[in-house]
Amino acid sequence: MKKLLSFIFIIVIFTGNIYSLPRIYILATGGTIAGSAETNVQSGYTSGQVGVEILIAAVPQLKEIADVKGEQISNIGSQDMSDEVWLKLAKRINELLAQDDVDGIVITHGTDTMEETAYFLNLVVHSKKPVVLTCSMRPSTALSADGPLNIYNAVAVAGNKDSWGRGVMVVTNDRIHSGREVVKTSTTAVETFMSPLVGSLGTVNYGKVNFVDLPHKKNTYESEFNVDNLSSLPRVDVIAIYEDAPGDLIKAAVDLGAKGIVTSGLGNGNMPKSCVEALKYARSKGVVVVRAARVLTGFVDRNVELNDDELGFVASYELIPSKARVLLRLALLQTSDPLKVQEYFSTY
User: Fold this and answer.
1) Parallel, antiparallel, or unpaired: how do β-strands 193-194 and 183-184 relate?
2) Which residue segments constitute the domains of the chain, with CATH numbers given?
3) Fewer CB in a 10 Å sphere around the end CB: N or C, the chain?
4) Global confidence as pTM
């Protein structure tokens, strides 16, 4: 009996040591972080060439901070990110986070559309458990590749109990950003991702996590948006506004089936009269119009130079056009009333 109890005790201790580490899934979608080039000192490369197991194997130190498993969702450059991949990713994340043996998720992603994917997931993941996107600006074959340390830091953040309830985050270049606030600011620099309006949520230095802020809007477990049973999302087009811009592209988007229009407007979301007239046409067809700005920071408020109340327009507030499009697409699943949509822009 004593030998049996001793054996059970050893098994319990051994099992406890295994599961004292956080259990993290890495979901790979491709991108530069999985890219490769012919040499390690060239700017040209091909995205999405390396699988998730190779990404994990490149960071053997992960086994010291987490029990890591990998899964390939897609292997594409994020310029080819699609609704199909978004929905597959969101559904898989919700499935995994509902399991007791999963403590957090890391997503490897290309940089081109990561700010959109992060905000989309911030609205449709339904868990307090951490979801962290990471990336690289240099391919896996590059001299001084930034991907391995970004993965290490992302896993550290996903496995940190202080990360719970902070919404979807982006970890890159030693910074922790809110998925709602983060934007890409440089075409080439490794410090490209910033949260220019409110700053980052914190830092992570070789796995040491330090939070300094909380998200400012509802997200994840608080969100009313649900895509678990969806196979498609409403079409919403972003239309650039510029000097002497005509309104025919707006009208064309409406005629081609857009359910929503987001304008990348001048200044405080302003636009020429020709575009205002085209947006009146859009409203007459039941299309929801959101005024955003091509300016990187600031606040697009209601009724400043255009009478939104009279025109039936929605102001994007602090959301840039790409993120305003994400929220509008989800809002259209609930309503086409511009006043209700405006409430979503205040809430999320």
Assistant:
1) antiparallel
2) 20-222 (3.40.50.1170), 236-347 (3.40.50.40)
3) N
4) 0.92
